[in-house]
Amino acid sequence: MCGRVYDQYELIATEYAQAFPDDFGPRPFDRAVFRSFADLVARSGGSTALDVGCGPGQAAAELTDCGLRAEGIDGSAAMVSLAQQRWPHVRFQAADMFDLPYEAGTFDAVCAWYSIIHTPAEVLPELFTRFRRVLTDPGWLLLGFQTDAPPLTFDHAYGRDVALTFLRHDTATVCAALEASGFSVYATTKRARLAHLDETAAQAMVIAHTSRIRLVDSRFRRRCWFR
């Protein structure tokens, strides 16, 4: 995401946050994906997560509610300020997701929940490589994005003149970019758009990991390895 896009979100941050007060209450399927993701992270021994492109902070807060120690970054300082006000128990800071201000291997998980919707498909391998750098090995990645629809462009939104194009990514293309960046795809899923929530496209979710993963079944203390 370039600085020009961040500038657009600076303009609409307050109205955007008011329009999306809760991403997960009315979307139980999405919440179940989050909980499954957090469980995978925990079962492989992880506990920390970074929400990139966090916006008003819903995904970082949800990861925290799922038991992970999460924090969020966003290129819009206005979004970060709103997120910190809404979720004071979670740490947020302003940063570009292409230039993450963390040492290599800082987090056990990265979440990019609708954060690649302004990133062209040909740039995704570079972005995913940046995500992979800050992950432990093993580490997990969760993506959410719109799919199965043409790009949607707005010149006016939330009462402001803007220049925003929302890209709808093909799941196979996203998975190929993940593989090119050194990830292994663990799961993909898609649900239909929810018209009553004004969604304009189907929604895709992808979970990937960095390498060989060890999961522990807490009921039997059984260890299971997979690639």
Automatic annotation (TrEMBL):
Recorded GO MF terms: methyltransferase activity
InterPro entries (alphabetical): CFA/CMAS (IPR050723), Methyltransf_25 (IPR041698), SAM-dependent_MTases_sf (IPR029063)
Record keywords, A-Z: Methyltransferase, Transferase
SUPFAM superfamilies found in the cross-reference section: S-adenosyl-L-methionine-dependent methyltransferases
Keyword Methyltransferase: yes
Any one Gene Ontology BP term: methylation
Record flagged with keyword Endoplasmic reticulum: no
Domain Methyltransferase: 50-139
Pfam families xref list: Methyltransf_25 (PF13649)
Protein name: SAM-dependent methyltransferase
Source species of the chain: Mycolicibacterium frederiksbergense
Taxon lineage: Bacteria, Bacillati, Actinomycetota, Actinomycetes, Mycobacteriales
